[in-house]
Specification:
- The chain contains 6 helices and 2 strands, in the order ααββαααα.
- The protein is 69% helix and 3% strand.
- The termini are far apart.
- The protein has 2 domains: 65 residues, no CATH class; 50 residues.
- The mean pLDDT is 85.
- The protein has 143 residues and is mainly α.
- This is BZIP domain-containing protein.
- InterPro entries: VPA1267-like.
Length: 143
């Protein structure tokens, strides 16, 4: 039975061998949120997903592969997360803006409904206008 260090080395060796057999098109198929999908990698390599977090050598190899793919244009550029320790300033107008946007969308919806109703009523008026005209020509008067 292999110990943890041996399993970790085997996982790294399997990952390196697997990554050498892949083409750029195959890498594109397993991109998820700007990086390679860890679940797909684990399945393809034959190890646990946690190995990519817990095994420093495997994590380094994966980062190196992703950086290489970014340099070749296969992966999108990495997004640097800004870590600000400063509190955000409260925006008084955000609630008012949200309420106005909701009110605006309700008015737009109502406007579309009313336009449809006007069109329907215009069609009915046109149809009954023609009917009234026909009856008048025949001598029948409608009140």
């Amino acid at each position: 039975m292999a110990n943890g260090q041996q399993i970790a080395k085997e996982n790294v060796d399997k990952f390196v061998a697997w990554s050498k057999t892949m083409t750029d098109d195959e890498f594109i198929q397993i991109i998820y949120r700007g990086q390679l999908n860890r679940g797909e990698l684990a399945t393809a390599v034959g190890c646990a997903k946690s190995a990519f977090r817990q095994n420093p050598t495997l994590r380094t190899a994966l980062n190196k592969l992703e950086n290489d793919l970014r340099a070749r244009g296969v992966l999108p550029p990495a997004i640097e997360k800004e870590t600000k320790n400063e509190p955000k300033e409260y925006d008084n107008s955000s609630r008012k803006t949200a309420l106005m946007a909701k009110h605006n969308s309700n008015l737009e919806r109502e406007n579309i409904e009313l336009k449809a109703k006007v069109k329907e009523l215009e069609n009915k008026l046109e149809r009954f206008g023609e009917l009234n005209e026909t009856l008048s020509e025949m001598g029948f008067m409608l009140r």
